[in-house]
Amino acid sequence: MDITGRKLIVKALAEEGVDTVFAYPGGMVTDIIDELYKQEDRFRLILPRHEQALIHEAEGYARESGRVGVCLVTSGPGATNTITGIADAHYDSIPLVVITGQVAQPLIGNDAFQEVDIVGMTRSIVKYGVTVRDRRELGRILKMAFYIAQSGKPGPVLIDIPKDIQQKSGPDEYPEHVDIRGYKPNTSVHIGQLKRAYKTLKNAKRPLILAGGGIHISGAEKLLTDFARKMNVPVCTTVMGKGSIPCDDPLYVGNSGMHGRYAANMAEMECDVLFSIGTRFNDRITGDLNEFAPKAKIVHLDIDTASISRNVVVDVPVVSDASLALTHLLEWAEPMKTEKWQAQIDEWQKEHPLEMRVRDGLNPQTIMEDIADVFGEASYVTDVGQHQMWATQFLPLRGSSKLITSGGLGTMGFGYPAAIGAKAADAERPVVCITGDGGFQMNMAELATSVCADIPVTVCVINNRYLGMVRQQQQYFYGKRYELTYLGKRPADTEHPDRLEEADPLYVPDFLKVAGAYGIDGIRVDEEDDIVPALQKARDAQKNGRSMLVEFDIAAEDVVLPMVKGGMANSDMILK
Question: Which residues participate in catalysis according to the annotation?
Answer without folding.
Answer: 51, 113-114, 163, 469
